[in-house]
Amino acid sequence: MDASAHIDDLGGFIQASPSSYHAAAEVARRLTEAGYAALDETADWREAVRPGARLVLVRDGAVIALALPGQVGSATPFRILGAHTDSPTFKLKPRPALASNGWLQAAVEVYGGPIIASWFDRELELAGRLVTRDGTTHLVRTGPFARIPHLAIHLDREVNTSFAPDRQRDVQPIFAVDGPDVLTHLAQLAGVSAAEIIGHDVVTVDTAAPARFGASRSLFAAPRLDNLSSVHAGLTALLGFEGGDAVAVLAAFDHEELGSESRSGASGPMLADVLERVAAAVEIDLHRSIPASWCLSADAGHAVHPNRPDKHDPTHRPAAGGGPLLKVNANQRYTTDALGSALWARTCEAAGVPWQPFVSNNAVPCGSTIGPLTATRIGIPTLDVGTPLLSMHSARELCHVDDPAYLRAATELFFAGAA
User: Fold this and answer.
1) CATH number, domain containing residue 35
2) For the region Disordered, what residue ranges are annotated (predicted)?
3) Which end of the chain is more exposed for a tag (fewer CB within 10 A), N or C?
């Protein structure tokens, strides 16, 4: 396992994936270049889905890829890595043109749960999709374009003791003092008329390049590590996958940061639809297959914060560089149980990968993942894992360079069903 090469590739993947739509497109691009065939949801799949097939399907900002074994039986199981393509950010409002006191601005609303203060005084990119009157989708990105400016300390002497930005007043980014409005600029980049744009899903992202740093260059900072670190682990594991007895699946959903309730989210029908159609095409009996299958819900988790260790459980202290987390919660905010714990321990041991149990401090309620949603909708045994981070939901997050490669190595063995 070459952690250095893996982290460099992760950095390139992140730079190619400023929005969920770009991330899904980049996954599909890499897989089709490796021989995966693109599936069309409106087509008959019976010709495409066959033993040994490699397939990929994009729905909006979500993507599902499958690698079928060479021999398929009625009880062939699925090994699924579930992740998500979206991150907390700001999203353009339907009418994004805004101006104030000589500044041109972009009208945005808060998407998910970002650490809002971390977005100030950064060069931001706008990225996402435009839809024209004829229904055509255009992916677009601006490069460094906008900035949410702080009020100078001379105008707010309490900024270092009481900074609590107003979610409406304080977060509208500036991008110019003259020129076209934001939607016209995006249309020009896409090569279409602004009058033809009748829909858009466009978000902000930090434009600073992913970077290794620190005394031994063992730290890695980038936007969207939550949760492109997991999407990339699943993608690269599929690209390195040489086959096994199960159907290997990468399911990267959109809208997890909003609760996953969309047609491309984990609460929607996408994964169930794909599994049913694939199973029908190769005569897998899902009632027999699903109980023998596993879903690895992979989403970033928390390393112990050195300045606030009191926020973490005193007996579970995940460390950066200590390997992926096995996330456990007594109230099933994470789905891991004893059977899942045993599977993860066997998988990591066989892959030569260290791993770390994670539970939340009882006084600090944890978030959740796509794990409970997938287990509930599909009925598939599920466990929750993830790369340990600092600064989760910041505009720019931090991990150890070894941990994403550890997750990839464990995922590849998980796909093979070797443990």
Assistant:
1) 3.40.630.10
2) 305-325
3) N
